[in-house]
Amino acid sequence: xxxxxxxxxxxxxxxxxxxxxxxxxxxxxxxxxxxxxxxxxxxxxxxxxxxxxxxxxxxxxxxxxxxxxxxxxxxxxxxxxxxxxxxxxxxxxxxxxxxxxxxxxxxxxxxxxxxxxxxxxxxxxxxxxxxxxxxxxxxxxxxxxxxxxxxxxxxxxxxxxxxxxxxxxxxxxxxxxxxxxxxxxxxxxxxxxxxxxxxxxxxxxxxxxxxxxxxxxxxxxxxxxxxxxxxxxxxxxxxxxxxxxxxxxxxxxxxxxxxxxxxxxxxxxxxxxxxxxxxxxxxxxxxxxxxxxxxxxxxxxxxxxxxxxxxxxxxxxxxxxxxxxxxxxxxxxxxxxxxxxxxxxxxxxxxxxxxxxxxxxxxxxxxxxxxxxxxxxxxxxxxxxxxxxxxxxxxxxxxxxxxxxxxxxxxxxxxxxxxxxxxxxxxxxxxxxxxxxxxxxxxxxxxxxxxxxxxxxxxxxxxxxxxxxxxxxxxxxxxxxxxxxxxxxxxxxxxxxxxxx
Length: 501
Prior knowledge:
Elements (H helix, E strand, L loop, with lengths): L13 H5 L5 H15 L11 H8 L3 H14 L2 E4 L3 E4 L7 H5 L23 H7 L12 E2 L12 H13 L15 H15 L8 E4 L1 H15 L4 E6 L3 H9 L3 E8 L2 E2 L1 H7 L3 E4 L13 H14 L2 E5 L23 E6 L11 E4 L2 H15 L4 H13 L1 H27 L4 E3 L6 E5 L6 H10 L2 E2 L17 E5 L5 H15 L3
Parallel strand pairs: 3-14, 5-6, 5-8, 8-9, 9-10
Antiparallel strand pairs: 1-2, 4-11, 6-7, 10-11, 12-13, 13-15
Helix pairs in contact: 2-4, 3-4, 6-9, 6-10, 7-14, 8-14, 9-13, 15-17
Family: In the C-terminal section; belongs to the class-I pyridoxal-phosphate-dependent aminotransferase family.
GO molecular function: DNA binding; DNA-binding transcription factor activity; pyridoxal phosphate binding; transaminase activity
Keywords: Aminotransferase, DNA-binding, Pyridoxal phosphate, Transcription, Transcription regulation, Transferase
């Protein structure tokens, strides 16, 4: 079995793993130094313990200790007993992201330039369309829907403690109407977290806290519509709620095929669209990763078309066999709007999401957020900021990643045993797996047959925009809500029904 990548505090440094064994110490130093200078590791960011980072990168602990010591000597890091190793407050930070400021208005010539005009929109519809509730039934025997974490694993005690600590740290003034961009403390914590785990290039002024990533996409859609966009490219297949949300806000979604390397950028260019929504780290639903050559082609298209890339990083923290690639946003922060939330890590009920915007779009997005609902609730934001700062979020991820890996392994093993001609597609990541069925199978008819017997197993055809067909017949099976034993029982029952039993 492949090793599990889980540490107390994670740090995304893919170049280290790819370096030759004799050079990894020097590469580690260089990567940390570059991350600090570029602002991906802001001042005061706490780094992983040497033992944790060594385990994550497959290095000797002494190699990490030596790299930390060198950067401490150079003034990039500071180490204090009891508080770990952190980025120095006076560390030299350069690069366009760290030194830039948020524009006070749109930049002429930008695809989203112009005032964020228009009505407040329909937030109720926007919030609803990306949810994936099971069809109305009294009770599913086996519910394999996608998109939900293990809700029973929610860290209730940690959240209660974080709520108390967050509230205790708020001033009386902070209990008034919130900053529409979000609680400043949370935006600072997110800059540090996203920088070290997803390599996102951000400053607090570019972060907007939203009611889930759905509201973030709705805000971006309204900015695009106000700037004159009428079509937005989307991946094919993709979440039907995403396409519905874009239509609600006056945009026509245009499907672009996805293959084993991710979205087809040549086909994207042929659409004439100047905006696209991608799930690059773990394509939904196919589960493929946007290949490096496609990443560069996508950003070249964005530059040539003066276009906007919306990167939905919906479940990138859940990778089970190897470290994830960094976010596409890190390669072109002025071309990419980055979306994320806690819905796939903690629980959708918290309604905490965020977007990281190019500087030229940030002011318009904050103003739309102000007009929409005056900002998100301060108390949940304060609790989440404390959870990030104290390491509770990382600890929860470490636990659930191991849990989901066991459940995914159980599902895949059961499929191999009972349905050897059904093949899992995509990388070992996320909260679901796509299973490719034999050619000629009617996956919609199979989904309906399973539903009649109390099994909720969405068909891949459900994620294709009619009349465009799905690339192959398949089922999209979520595995995080069921124990390994229940998953094995579900697959045995699916096999019996698929054979006509």
